[in-house]
Amino acid sequence: MLSYARKQPVMPKVLDLNQTLEGMLKLLQRLIGENITLKWLPQKDLWPVRVDPSQIDQTLTNLCVNARDSIDGVGNIKVETAMASLDQTWAQDHEGAVPGDFVVITVTDTGQGMDKQILSKIFEPYFTTKAVGKGTGLGLATVYGIVKQNHGFIAAQSEPGKGSTFRIYLPRWQAPITPTPVGD
User: Fold this and answer.
1) Residue 183: what pLDDT?
2) pLDDT at residue number 149
3) What CATH number does the domain containing 77 carry?
4) Is 181 exposed, middle or buried (0-12, 13-18, 19+ CB in 10 A)?
């Protein structure tokens, strides 16, 4: 939604998501503040994905800022990467999921958590639980749009007093990577 409004071109590239996310860690730590510990748990030998790196930056920033805002005082935010091969049975049991090979970005916080009623609305544009002037309600709607635009899906789990977990599933890039010829 925001990329259309700003008329920003989407420029997907084949990425090693671990490298892209590692490049953001210092910025994220500054954004979340010194009372919150940022933990980074990358999966080794991660499959490549094809996505615009600026969309990954925007997605992770939105998730970490929301996580920070849900933590009262001291807490933790954990960012992980993993790989998942999902079958038809698993996909049928998870709303919005499709079978296939995915790279998964998981953001977990030790914040206040959300009840089922709030959780059911979090991806709606302009829905916010923040005080007036503290949030636009576009952060998670933007994350949802970016994930869908890249043929992925997102799952959120939360309970009051137990924090929240967001899992973003981006399709594995399986096209062969053609080597660039050297000198002729």
Assistant:
1) 54
2) 93
3) 3.30.565.10
4) exposed
Q: What is the pLDDT of residues 48-72, one digit of tens each?
A: 999 999 999 999 999 999 999 999 8
**Residue 178 within a domain:** no
Match 């925007």 to its residue by tokens. 58
Domain membership of residue 182 (yes or no) is no
Q: Please count the structural domains in the chain.
A: 1
Does residue 181 form part of some domain? no
Q: What is the pLDDT of residue 104?
A: 97
Let me know if residue 176 belongs to a domain: no
Q: Domain range holding 153?
A: 2-171
